[in-house]
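Workshop exercise sheet. Pairs work together: one partner reads the sequence aloud, the other fills in the structure field after running the prediction. Swap roles for the next sheet.
Pair: D.N. / O.F.
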Amino acid sequence: MSRRRFLEDCVVRLVNQERETAGLAALPTEEMLRQSSRTHSEAMAVRDFFAHLDPDGTSPANRMRVAGHPFPGAENMAVHLPNALEVVRAWMASPGHRVNILGPDFRAIGAGLFRERGDRLGWWTQNFGYV
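Structure field:
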């Protein structure tokens, strides 16, 4: 398993711990959501932006559909954080991100990380889906 995949899976495990603490079901990783998350993380780093909408106007729902996931839900993003624990802590401290993590109707999750070579900080994206 690659280091990137390991860190992405750590995000999912930590999110599922938060969900279980709140009495919610754990979310399985959906590879299509992982791919849409990875694609967005890399695009933000390479194109030097930090937003849910790409500079060309592509939305999170569009990215999830392009990756093959038919029922997009929501997206969380973080930048320049060193590890999964710091990312999930930051998201849980943010009301909007917390709402996504604890969304009772979501049924799948995918986390994506992009790091420049030699960089210990990353661009993180997390996508949620309904099916």
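Discussion prompt: The chain has a mean pLDDT of 96. What would you look at next?
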